[in-house]
Amino acid sequence: MSGKLWDGRFGEATDRNVERFTASVKTDSRLYAHDIAGSIAHCKMLARQAIISGEEAALLIKGLQSIKEEIAGGEFEFDEAAEDVHMNIECRLALHVGDVAKKLHTARSRNDQVALDTRMWLRDESEEILRCLRILRRELVGLSKKHIDVVMPGYTHMQRAQPVLLSHYFMAYYEMFKRDTARFREGLVRINVLPLGSAALAGTTFPIDMGYTAELLGFPEVVANSLDAVSDRDFVIEFLSASSICMVHMSRLSEELIYWSSAEFAFVEMPDSFSTGSSIMPQKKNPDVCELVRGKTGRVFGSLMASLTMMKSLPLAYNRDMQEDKDALFDAVDTLRACLAIYGKLLPKLRINSGRMRDAAEHGFANATDLADYLVTRGVGFRDAHHAVGKAVGYALEKKKELHDLALEELRVFSPLIDQDVFDVLSFSSVINRRRSTGGTATKNVLEAISAAEAELEQENCESK
Q1: 411 with 418: CB under 8 angstroms?
Q2: Contact 163, 154 (CB under 8 A)
Q3: Following DSSP, what letter does each residue of 23-60 receive, concatenated?
Q4: Distance of alpha carbon 367 from its chain centroid, rounded?
Q5: Could you say which of 42, 168, 261, 278 is catalytic?
Q6: Which residue spans within 332-420 are E strands per DSSP?
Q7: What is the pTM of this model?
Q8: Could you tell me if 84 and 28 are in contact, meaning their C-beta atoms sit under 8 angstroms apart?
Q9: N or C terminus: fewer CB in 10 A for the chain?
Q10: Gap between the terminal Cα atoms of the chain
């Protein structure tokens, strides 16, 4: 390249080391399609407002479309000396259409241009992430429906607590990913605002029509303040925050599957096609996919922290620090999409060891609270009932029995109010199905939750078409 588009002010050429240091094109070249779409809309607006002629706009648009085809076909070589994707395309445009290319940048700056490109790109990526979340939630619902009769121990402090349906467990993750879906949708509202026309920071003297540009590019809203428009990366930070929370949920699910698939638990078995082996131990079958998802969570957290740190002390308006937003954003998007996609394929292949789960649920006094509740229904205060059942658990431990294995006479030692009907209360079918409070693990509740989730997913599918 013979000179910079901005070199009129400078008396000497840019040092090659500075060119390499400041160039962002290796990162932001992936914005090319959105950059070109924004430039085409800008040309149409300029012509409509008689800022450039219709013939000039047509020539510019034809050149931009040709460049898009070149890049898509791998025929375009990006040049670090041109700094970024915007200037690479503009320089190439001059070779296609001549001096009229110099009119493309009328009434805009790279400051509002990059803000536009990032918003357009992130809008598309958010829609893809919402699609991946829909698939993942659908698979969780499918597993819940398929294994509705499977009982497992629920845990607190990693100790067996009370029995729950496996379906209830999976539907808990459905709720987490449903909240993630809401966060990404709400973030889209703030992403979907047009900044183009704010120029460098103060707006432009040309009689532009930002509403028309917004209509062409599918933006329902236009920025209210030009200073804010070019210096705002809240929408990036908000997206990264939603991504980080989503990765927390992915990591928690990964952790569950990792220990559930261990020999000590043996609740599930990973499909061979989603597992790896050991280079030295022939017997090993490792849950590497889950471990990598758990590990990649830190990368997304890092992107959020990098973006917050980058923006925390920047004065208005645009500062070159903000060039660093894209490395973090692109990596987080790629990571999250990959994790969501692979779990959408792994979950339906997961093999459930229902017998092992039920056996674990039936040991460890998981029905102790139900015995306490039983005493409460007979007029015993809960704290007294809790104390009596604690004594019964201690006795059962000595006898190496579960509460439901004790004879009625043994149980009555701890309260004379215990009667034969206690064994119905202590059965695991009863323990599950008596928990009918809103959100409880009763089969009826879980089936209703599954039905509601199916309706939600169907509605979302219709809206996405």
Answers
A1: yes
A2: yes
A3: --HHHHGGGHHHHHHHHHHHHHHHHHTTSS-HHHHHHH
A4: 37
A5: 278
A6: 351-352
A7: 0.93
A8: yes
A9: C
A10: 45
What is the rounded average pLDDT of the residues 398-412?
95
Average pLDDT of the residues in 250-276: 95
How many residues are recorded in the chain? 465
- Distance, CA of 356 to CA of 263 (rounded, Å): 11
Percent helix, strand and coil across the chain, each to the nearest 5: 65, 5, 30
DSSP character string of 113-182? HHHHHHHHHHHHHHHHHHHHHHHHHHHHHHHHHHTTT-EEEEEETTEEEEEEEHHHHHHHHHHHHHHHHH
Is 157 considered catalytic here? yes
Provide the 3-class DSSP secondary structure of residue 244: helix
Round to whole Å and give the CA distance between 382 and 403. 18
| 126 given a catalytic annotation | no
The two tokens of residue 367 are 């029905």
Strand, coil or helix: 222: strand
Say which residue, 332 or 9, is predicted with more confidence.
332
Summarised one tens digit per residue, pLDDT across range 283-330 is 889 999 999 999 999 999 999 999 999 999 999 999 999 999 999 999
Query: Taking CA 96 as the corner, what is the angle to CA 92 and CA 97, rounded to the nearest 5 degrees?
Result: 115
User: Is there a contact between 140 and 344 (Cβ–Cβ < 8 Å)?
Assistant: no
Hey, what amino acid is at 327?
D
* Residue 258 structure tokens: 């990792």
Write down the residue that tokens 């973030």 correspond to: 187
CA–CA separation, 400 and 363 (whole Å): 11
Task: Please compute, for residue 452, the number of CA atoms within 13 A of its CA located in the half-sphere on the CB side.
Answer: 11
Domains of the chain, earliest start first: 7-106 (1.10.275.10), 111-157+166-206+220-359 (1.20.200.10), 364-464 (1.10.40.30)
* Rounded CA separation 367/370 (Å): 5
Per residue in 92-137, pLDDT tens? 999 999 999 999 999 999 999 999 999 999 999 999 999 999 999 9
